[in-house]
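Person: I have long wanted to understand how a fold can be written as tokens. Underneath my words sits a plain record pairing an amino acid chain with its backbone structure tokens. Those tokens are not coordinates but codes from a learned vocabulary of shapes. I should like you to check that the lines agree and flag anything odd. The protein I mean follows directly.
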Amino acid sequence: FLSFFMMFCGYFVLLEGMPVWWRYWAPYISPLHYSLSAAMFTQFFERDFNAANGTCAAQSSGDQLLEFYGVTISNWQEMWGYTGIVGLFALAYLIGTYFVLRNCKWSSRR
């Protein structure tokens, strides 16, 4: 279950590398997609990479890096929206866990 989320969050497989019929729905049911996008946005939004001293950088700015990874967040309000979505996923998992533990019949070992 978790490996499915990890595979389609956009870190291991870029969104452009996914089959078309997976690309439109799989990343959006993964809480890792939202958390990775928000974390990348906070680190790389409007940053310039200094390619001096003979170092080689594939992208010259953080915005190019975000575009390469398919992060579609364009402002801080959207980033907080993604953070809220991650919070809703966590709340849904906690509620689901509560109901499973509350309603399952557990047999005791003797």
About this structure: The CA atoms of residues 14 and 96 lie 30 Å apart.
